[in-house]
Amino acid sequence: MLAPMYVHTPAVVTHAVDDEVFVVRVSGSLDHDSAPLLEEACAPAKDSGAPRTVIDLSLTDFADSTVLHVLLAAQRAHDRQERKLIVAGPFHRVIRRLFDVTCTAGYFTLADSMPRALEA
Length: 120
What we know:
Structural class: alpha/beta
Order of helices and strands: EEHEHEHEH
Number of helices: 4
Strand content: 25-35%
Largest sheet: 5 strands, mixed
């Protein structure tokens, strides 16, 4: 029997300020077509006045290198403003693999859950 094929789920990206934390929530599959949604959601963080941003990837089931590029750009922007960026899970194995294979996990503050991200 063949393994089930991957099913692409449309990406949904939202953002809001919650208790002085700018929160970006992502669900579904992020790739080169939907990465601009993440980029657009992260952009207002710099003017939000919130001292930190949490990007919640707990409901994200796929991300490619385009998404990684957006996350790295967001991290650099936060570093320039001396603000904290936390990427929250729990991470789907595909997302964890993206960080592991590209050796980029060390560039981010990763949290295994939203509650831990909010404590960081």
